[in-house]
Amino acid sequence: MNIHEYQAKELLKSYGAPVANGVIVLNADEAEAKAKELPGPLWVVKAQIHAGGRGKGHFKEPEAGEGGGVRLARSAEEAAEQARAMLGKTLVTVQTGEEGKQVGRVYIEEGADIEKELYLSVLVDRALGKVAFIASTEGGMDIEAVAEETPEKIVTVPVEPSQGVTDEVAEKIVQGLKLEGTAAEEGKKLVRALYKAFTEKDMAMLEINPLIVMPDNHIRVLDAKVSFDPNALFRHPDILELRDLSEEDPLEIRASEHDLSYVKLDGNIGCMVNGAGLAMATMDIIKHYGAEPANFLDVGGGATKEKVTEAFKIITSDPGVEGILVNIFGGIMKCDVIAEGVLAAVKEVGLSVPLVVRLEGTNVEKGKEIINNSDLDVISADDLEDAAQKIVKAVKG
């Protein structure tokens, strides 16, 4: 689960991170009053969407004015004017795609003089099985580009879970950022604060880009991006309250309400599978035979007929789906239950695209019999390769 920049900063501030004062604007009518809560002389106006590249983005509507989703203002009145121009408009960035995202919130923050821009993030290094810090002197840039072009400028420092952030770990990170004096001491405090926040709140990723050093050698979190492990949100009702449903895909929201693991993709073949590994293999073989998956959808090991029906409805609700592949390996989940769920869904919502069903495992013969004896136009497959070939062929006509 992602949250907005202003929410991330407020959370990090509660752990002692150096964050500028700011105000959130939800309504254009309150923009000027909100902006005047900050003393100036420089205001930074930031569109709040769950996507990066806001500063280099552009608005679809000409009335939003020139510039991207991050703008400077020299007065409270100008800041309010920029906030009003952004609210309700569609911001397009490299991460949103051409459809862009509508701006429903604008954050106005105190400006800062910048001496240096740095990069600092915390994530789970799955190869090491540990939380690790990623530090670079190349802040303000796409870290992937830095990794490709100048990998020597990136420092990775893992943290032993039993020890936490030791003096040695903090020192390595500060050295990687090339901080000295006051900035170095503040950097060590920040590293400890970030690790505490990351572990206590079950974060999946915490990125500060840029972390700035100001002319007085103090540091400040200038931008922050935070995401959380969705499987741990039951432990954090305070974090769950920060969820902005308007930033999420409606189909993904609907799936989460029925405890389905669903991620919308850009392809044209809808997939309904049980088990994350099998779902990934199904997506891979669809691509292998020249098509693209429209989604990742794992109905889980113990899905009911009703759950399968809802999953099918979600797939067919995507206008980009031109064919559907159901690939089920029945263990705990029985193939006949899947078959009944698929047929119930087809009868309820209709079927206007090709449907291929591959079943294997518990009660597979019963499942195939249910499919074959139905009066619906369903294509049966013997194995995964056969299923992928059939659905790709059916979609391509």
Q: How is this structure best described in words?
A:
- With 397 residues, the chain is α+β, with helices and mostly antiparallel strands.
- It has 3 domains: 21-110, ATP-grasp fold, A domain (Dna Ligase, domain 1, 2-Layer Sandwich), CATH 3.30.1490.20; 116-239, ATP-grasp fold, B domain (D-amino Acid Aminotransferase, Chain A, domain 1); 250-395, 3-Layer(aba) Sandwich (Rossmann fold), CATH 3.40.50.
- It is 35% helix and 25% strand.
- The strands form 5 sheets. Strands 8, 9, 10, 11, 12 and 13 form a 6-stranded antiparallel beta sheet that branches.
- α5 packs across α6, α10 (305-316) crosses α11 and α11 (335-349) packs parallel to α12 (364-372).
- The protein is globular and about 75 Å long.
- The two termini are 39 Å apart.
- InterPro entries: ATP-grasp, ATP-grasp_succ-CoA_synth-type, ATP_grasp_subdomain_1, Succ-CoA_synthase_bsu_CS, SUCC_ACL_C, Succ_CoA_ligase-like_bsu, Succinyl-CoA_synth-like.
